[in-house]
Amino acid sequence: MLEKMGKLALNAKEKVELLSTEKKNEALKKVAEGLIRHTDAILAANEKDMKNGQDKGMSQGLLDRLKLTEARIKDMSEGILQVAGLPDPVGEILEEWERPNGLLIQKKRVPMGVIGIIYEARPNVTADAFALCFKTGNVVILKGGSDAIHSNAAITESIRESLKEVAITEDAIQLIMDTDRETTSRFMKLNHYIDVLIPRGGAGLIRTVVENSTIPVIETGTGNCHVYVDKDADLKMALEIIVNAKTQRIGVCNACESLVIHEAIAEDFLPLLRTALLEKKVEIRGDEGVCRAIPESKAASEEDYGTEYLDYVLSVKLVGSVKEAVSHINRYHTMHSDCIVTEKEETAELFLNSVDSACVYWNASTRFTDGFEFGFGAEIGISTQKLHARGPMGLKELTAYKYLIKGKGQIRS
Amino acid sequence: MLEKMGKLALNAKEKVELLSTEKKNEALKKVAEGLIRHTDAILAANEKDMKNGQDKGMSQGLLDRLKLTEARIKDMSEGILQVAGLPDPVGEILEEWERPNGLLIQKKRVPMGVIGIIYEARPNVTADAFALCFKTGNVVILKGGSDAIHSNAAITESIRESLKEVAITEDAIQLIMDTDRETTSRFMKLNHYIDVLIPRGGAGLIRTVVENSTIPVIETGTGNCHVYVDKDADLKMALEIIVNAKTQRIGVCNACESLVIHEAIAEDFLPLLRTALLEKKVEIRGDEGVCRAIPESKAASEEDYGTEYLDYVLSVKLVGSVKEAVSHINRYHTMHSDCIVTEKEETAELFLNSVDSACVYWNASTRFTDGFEFGFGAEIGISTQKLHARGPMGLKELTAYKYLIKGKGQIRS
Q1: Could you give the CA distance from residue A255 to residue A250 in angstroms, rounded to a whole number?
Q2: Tell me, what CATH number does B329's domain have?
Q3: What are the average pLDDT values for consecutive 10-residue runs of chain B, which has 413 residues?
Q4: Where residue B13 sits, what CATH number does that domain have?
Q5: How close is the nearest chain B Cα to the Cα of A57, in Å?
Q6: What is the Cα–Cα distance from B130 to A53, expressed in whole angstroms?
Q7: Cβ within 8 Å, pair A216-B211
Q8: Which structural domain range is residue B175 located in?
Q9: Which of A231, A318, B8, B355 pairs as cysteine with A262 (C-beta 3.0–4.6 A)?
Q10: pTM of the entire predicted model
Q11: Mutate which: A191, A211, A368, vs B, most B CBs within 10 A
Q12: What is the tally of structural domains in chain A?
């Protein structure tokens, strides 16, 4: 079954990659309209998933992620229209040069080909991932979670019907209906058909994909983000950034999970930090110095420094220098987003160049690591690996390049 | 042991990535001189490997790849000097923009970090891979083949000594001395320490790495390259390109392994092809039409079309249209290099845009897929995947980027 889907995807790829921007945008508009028109069918399917979820005793949080409403379907539809409005990166000549032998070499931006997406409970990813991949001339094979299978199937059916209406192959999007582990495992080894696999979900899902896929993966997501308060920091600014990065939205990958504080300002800063964090009901886990200054805090274990809490918990560590801060962060972070607060440019430059993260901030909240906040107009995820793309991935990051070499019969001597 | 090497590499990374271009070039020159100075020690080590190889009954071809001479060491040394002379891509600001909230976002080219290289019998890869990685601010951990272990160790020792002389951490290069399978297998799962793994060698090695590595891999190498002779081809040019692509050097990944010929010119072209290929002692494996026209040819099996022979063998297939040619190539190729010979621009454009290869040629030999022929001045390998880099990889392809975000206390609302 997977083999068959792979073949259909390869066939679809040959057609989708040649579509003009106008044709793709026309199709996206149809798809957006189609979702609205199929609202009833999608809600009915979602009802089934919700009932199964309730029967299984799914948590309120997960049920909320799963739930679709008329308003949420409208949001999905509008998201697709927004993608239609973005510039199409495909086809751009990135570089072009002529060799002494007369060969003209053009480096051209092209679609990635066939993209596999593995995701969890949110059915809106189905529409969202399709729109981003299709806009960039890619074909997608989706593998959603079993909890959302009926919703995902209804959304996919709606999209396929709309594609048909504009005479585009429906196989530009395919959904894997078997949600067992063995199918997922085989899906991750379809190297012959799939060019890249993008997991979207929690740390467990991402680890499974990284460990089992033989297809190239873009690792996304986990963020053990740090804020370092330097001895030359504006303490008021530091406090605002920390409170924002930690509590503006709990449970997202760009939220702050760990603080590093220069000893020289600890005496002044920790009492301020204490007041601000306790007010927000943030539990503090610190080293000795922190525990002394903030009696409410617990002792941090080695494990704490490496933990992405996604909760009202924060680890805090004191250091003697910016270099020590850099070493600590490079040891425990997930290469996502880290920040220094300092008024001294020299210190900031050292930090920016030495902390090995996708996004390194000087005097700003880590919460800005986001495709929309970066101005990309869209986001498929945040890469925490170094190959291909780092940080927020928009449309460009869903493309590859190829070389076109034009000659007049040149041969190698 | 591997864990310890990983930790040393991370420590070295923090220092190497901050080295100035001047300092790196100075070190490369020292390393080049050091190899010459250590010629005797390297030759003595190589002697041991050669003796072991002979005792094991290694083939003449492999022994030749393994053998070092004074001249070959001089070549290695000169190769390093050439890399020292190339521009350093690290540090370039690729893009820079300001957001409406005043955040300044800079996309900066940075070293990849720690690069793992797994390779086979050629000891010169040791020096070559080090030079390319070091020039781009990366640290390397090398895992060569057991057959070359003494040579690799002597070369590595020489490089480490030269680095020490210019006060750069020796751990910029480390060689894994255990060459058993289990060590290799564990090496491919050191995600915490290694940012990217590049296999250099035959198809078997590359498959093993792709199937077993949990570290992001750049797949290199295998090339089932095609030449398509269109109905509007200049037949004389087609013949020259085919002979060059097939026979100028047998056994390289950018050599032609398969021909696709438009039926409309088969009657005129096949007799010419026959004469040219038989003269070069190339065995032809063709479909029915080809076998009829060239009595010396054998019937091609399905497997033949997908085979990278690296030998004096060529598969040949007749097709009725350029579209059929594209479908055939996209089905059997390895996404390396494919060529169309035609005088018609429209046909060429269709082929160039539809054949999904790293390098697509119009009227030129596939043998130009090479970092030096592209003008990169160096080459670490030829990527056949779509993530990160495609085609010849030079210095730029050994780098990643990071985002530096500079603010004045901005927080997200």
Answers
A1: 7
A2: 3.40.309.10
A3: 95 95 98 98 98 94 92 96 97 97 98 96 92 98 95 98 98 94 94 94 90 94 94 98 96 95 98 97 97 96 95 97 97 96 98 97 98 94 95 97 98 95
A4: 3.40.605.10
A5: 35
A6: 54
A7: no
A8: 2-219+388-406
A9: A231
A10: 0.94
A11: A368
A12: 2
